[in-house]
Amino acid sequence: MYKKNNGSTEQEILQNQFSAYVKKAVHNRRIQFLTEKSRKFRFETPLFDLDYLLFDTTDIIQEITDHETVRQALRSIKENERRIVLERIIEEKSFGQLSDELGMSYKTVASLYYRAIKKLRRFMEEGESK
């Protein structure tokens, strides 16, 4: 098991410094990960445990929601926007992963995503006001 040294030799001092560095690096990365995750969830509502890829593409929208307005809103956006939105929210893929898969730049994928979200919000607001 791990035995803490007393730092009496130069090698033990170096080992203690390195251990402190690694501990601090892991701690900082954990904080960064949690911050990114919470920032993402402020703007998105993730849908967990939903393997929508098993469904036919025409049934995806039907399977992920019971609310007719949401279904109509998802049908109202373009196919590539819908794919980006669904993979970003359901599969929690990053823009980098999506850009690699779709052969688009990071900024293009991000722009399409946020444009689609804006269209969905507008559609939903119009649906509620009717």
UniProtKB/TrEMBL annotation:
Pfam families: Sigma70_r4_2
Top-rank taxon: Bacteria
Listed GO MF terms: DNA binding; sigma factor activity
One example of a Gene Ontology biological process annotation: DNA-templated transcription initiation
Residue ranges of domain RNA polymerase sigma factor 70 region 4 type in the record: 68-120
InterPro entries reported in the protein's UniProt record: RNA_pol_sigma70_r4_t2, RNA_pol_sigma_r3/r4-like, WH-like_DNA-bd_sf
Protein name in the entry: RNA polymerase sigma factor 70 region 4 type 2 domain-containing protein
Organism the protein comes from: Vescimonas fastidiosa
